[in-house]
Amino acid sequence: MITIRPICTDEIYAVKLVILTVAYNIFGFEGTLEDSIFHFEASGEFKDMDDVQTHYFDAGGTFLVALNGEQVIGSGALRKLDDRTAELKRMWLLEAYHGQGIGYRLIMQLFGFAREKGYIHIRLQTSPEQIRALGFYRKVGFYEIPCYNEDVSEISMEISLSE
């Protein structure tokens, strides 16, 4: 049975593994998956996840996990950009679970949370290589916008929750 709920501290490592497993398949990092885990941990790429309470829950956001039984299979998070705008972060789902509506359920829960908090826009950034993710985001209503931060190599998107 698939469930979606807020992350527990003991699930953080499993979420990192989901993210890196999917990213490894998309980007084809050099070396093994384990090498990639070590590299991204050392680079600070996951510093927000090392304290989800502070970076998400205490800062006007949330961090959800999708579970198949007890196994973490996906994640999605929101963090506050300003009083009207949240940012979608850490939206990942193991490939074996694509096409089953799990990502849709996850993002709809995040949209509901955002509305309850009074956000009227959600923004995200993703890499051009993530073709499937880009298609998914467009399907649920995101549209491209000019870059909203310093990472101009990524595609910026937004959705208005008031429509």
Descriptive notes:
The chain has 163 residues and is of the alpha+beta class. It has helices at 12-27, 33-43, 52-55, 102-117, 131-139, and strands at 2-6, 62-68, 71-82, 85-93, 121-126, 143-145, 155-160. It has a seven-stranded mixed sheet, sandwiched between helices.
Q: From the helix content, strand content and strand pairing, which structural class follows?
A: alpha+beta
For the record, the CATH class is Alpha Beta
Sequence of strands across the biggest β-sheet: 1-2-3-4-5-7-6
Largest sheet: 7 strands, mixed
CATH architecture: 3-Layer(aba) Sandwich
Number of structural domains: 1
Beta content comes to 25-35%
Set down the secondary structure blueprint.
Elements: E1 2-6, H1 12-27, H2 33-43, H3 52-55, E2 62-68, E3 71-82, E4 85-93, H4 102-117, E5 121-126, H5 131-139, E6 143-145, E7 155-160
Parallel strand pairs: 4-5
Antiparallel strand pairs: 1-2, 2-3, 3-4, 5-7, 6-7
Descriptive labels:
163 residues, Aminopeptidase, 5 helices, globular
Condensed summary:
This protein has helices spanning 12-27, 33-43, 52-55, 102-117, 131-139; strands at 2-6, 62-68, 71-82, 85-93, 121-126, 143-145, 155-160.
